[in-house]
From TrEMBL, chain B:
It comes from the Bacteria. This is ABC transporter permease. The chain crosses the membrane at residues 22-41, 79-97, 118-141, 161-183, 190-207, 285-308. The keyword Metal-binding does not apply. Keywords: Membrane, Transmembrane, Transmembrane helix.
Amino acid sequence: MRYGRRRDPVLRDCSFRLPAGRICALIGPNGAGKSTLLALAAGMLRPTQGTVRALGASPAESRSRIGYAAQTRPLYPQLTVAATLRLGAELNPGRWDQEVAERVAFGTDLDPSARIRTLSGGQRTRVALALALGKRAELLLLDEPMADLDPVARHQLMGALLAVAVEHGTSVVMSSHVLAELEGACDHLLLLGRGQIRLAGDSEDVLTAHARLTGASPDFAPHTVVESGTTGRGHTALVRPQGPVDATTWLVEQPSMEELILAHLRNPGAPALFTGSASPAPSQEAAA
Amino acid sequence: MTTLSYSPRHGLIRAVLRLHRVPLWVWTMMVIAGASGLVWLHQLGQEPALYGESCGATGLLQCATELRYGSTELRSAQLVAWLPCGIAACAGAALIGRELEHGTAALAWSQSVSPARWLAAKLAVPAVALLGGTAALTLMFRWVWVSGPDGGVNRWNSEYFHAAGSVGPVYVLLGLALGALAALLTRRTLPATGLALTGMALAYTLGDQARSSLWPASEVRGPWGPALNQVDQLEAGMITKSGEHVSGLACGDQAVPGDLAACLSNHGAVDFYAKVHPTSHYWPIQLVETGVVLTLATAVVAAAFWVLRRSLP
């Protein structure tokens, strides 16, 4: 995906599959292409090359089954909160869940007759998420859903989101540049760096596919090294073990997800990892 | 769980109506104000007849009223001819450009409304409102103009041609379409408004230029008479002995004014001629221009949909 003819592509060779029913964290630094990827999947942009498939069809065909909350929280400033929800009901005939939308939008203290232009950033986020959740979508694409929410609202909304997802078996993709915002809620990981997928797969699988080795030798073969360096105790490396790890030569530790992600972002040369069903083969299509 | 059921098509139209409630009210108020003004103008037009005496004789009061009516009528014609077109161009550019600029268009697109349906609704609602309002004003202006005193106005004058005929409302549709296309191209309100108004001015000027060629002109022979003041004059000149039509030859510079025979022989000509559109060509030309502008507006709308589809799935 490329914006403008002369600009570098935002997303390039970005192929992956996302199994249905997962709650996926889309992690990446600023400018990695998270918002572009979500907008493509939601049918807000047409890819300059390649194909995107969502829910087994093109994003345009799946439009009524996809809920999308853009990062900019587009809302009509002149409408009230209640009128905005009514808009959602009118534009989603037969799919709208007013109860869920109201629960997400109003929370504890939001006045239904307040105009959107008078709301704070966090309150606008609540209304935008209410529109996405009220739609009873099969796939929810939420761009930075928790970014401007206070901790209480974050907890409350994550709870509401997970309840909806579990009740209806909804697939969810949530983007963030901070893993901590999403950790605990997500069971699937997509790490995006410089427009390409770096890690994709079940969170557990991705974690167990890596190990931190510390030892005297700087040679970590035959394992794939993601990041290596020297420490006071000798040489340490984050590797993807290829075959059994010799626990007598190395001190073997399980890295945390945070460490894993940082190591991959610091070392763009490390090969991408797709675990299990996340691999784009054989269809070479991104499907969710 | 509450599920509200709305019919999908009406839901979108209702949503667009509610979103643009304020501009729609403002337009309605403008149409009502315009209609009231035209009713007042009609009253003014009926006054001169009450004085009983004609303007040429002793009826000074009648002359003053007629003059006042004439200038007001011209100003009304200009307003009816120009204002709705400008408003339509601005409306197309602002209603669509603002949504693209602030990203609110994505709100509709993420709520089960395809971009093409969204654009169709965003165009249909203002189109109906603008067309209805302009058609009403045009009909009223025609009524005022036809029933008012004859101030010697040439019906082919650009303002009158727009304000009292079927071309007026279709230029409004063209303005809306141009505004929408400009908004989709620039994705910003202010540049789109400028672009749309420029395009509208261009279309207006081209229409004025091309109007006479839309229907084959008639040729009349003989010297210029007062009847020719009421027709669309394209070309006037003399016919030479060899039968050649020479445009632009006139008798304005001859020594004895009025001696047309001497003037003709001085130029080596046998008769005067003029190419004109008589009154009988008025409605054919109105209808042809209406068709041309409508086709143009359709093409611009198609281009707008093409631009939208180019960037969206």
